[in-house]
Amino acid sequence: MDVGTVLLWIGAALLALPGACGDCGEPPRFVFAEPPIPTNASYPVWTVLRYRCRPGYTGDVSKSPRVTCLPNSTWASHPDFCIGKSCGHPEIPNGDFHFSTNLQFGATINFTCKAGYRVVGKASAQCVLRGSDVDWDHVPFCQ
Fold first, then answer.
1. CATH number for the domain including 122?
2. Confidence band, pLDDT 50/70/90 cuts, at residue 5
3. Residue 13 falls within a domain, yes or no?
4. 23-74, pLDDT tens digit by residue?
5. 34 with 75, same domain?
6. How far does the signal peptide extend, from start to end residue (predicted)?
7. CA–CA separation, 59 vs 67, rounded Å?
8. Is residue 111's pLDDT more than 50?
9. Would you say 65 and 82 are in contact if contact means Cβ atoms under 8 Å apart?
10. pTM greater than the 0.85 cutoff
């Protein structure tokens, strides 16, 4: 076999590799968003897919929910283009709540009561999905 034939075979093998022609594989998966359905196994360069926020999340207006297939066979997107919906501040008369991150979908908060009162119910709550919105799974009271 001569050098030209070997180079031809190497070139053909490289073209057969995924991404060798500048295409992208399946679109990325995100906890907070889903791609359009159905997805393909491969996409041409400069393909743009618009994602939809999953339940419990809402679009961040400062970021685009689109991902783009780049010439280097990778997908590009803004990070966290969907953010957790907020459960807001729970009302607990004669008490307070504390959190370490935020009040968004999936967050956990802890409750305490003012001096002379005690927590009735579970002393922590989680921001959970209820239908298409989010709310605290329960809120105790101080007695």
1. 2.10.70.10
2. very low
3. no
4. 999 999 999 999 999 999 999 999 999 999 999 999 999 999 999 999 999 9
5. yes
6. 1-22
7. 14
8. yes
9. yes
10. no
Residues 71 and 27 reside in one and the same domain: yes
| C-beta of residue 80 within 8 angstroms of C-beta of residue 104 | no
Q: Which residues contact 60 (CB under 8 A, 6 or more apart)?
A: 78, 80, 81, 82, 83
Give yes or no: residues 76 and 38 share one domain.
yes
Q: Evaluate whether residue 33 is within a structural domain.
A: yes
**Which residues contact residue 27 at a Cβ distance below 8 angstroms, ignoring those fewer than 6 apart?**
35, 39, 43, 49, 67, 75
The tokens for 107 are 């967050």
Interatomic CA distance for residues 35 and 108, integer angstroms: 28
The parent domain of residue 36 ranges over: 19-83
Q: What is the 3-state secondary structure (H, E, C) of 25-44?
A: CCCCCCCCEECCCCCCCCEC
Domain boundary among 66, 83, 100: 83
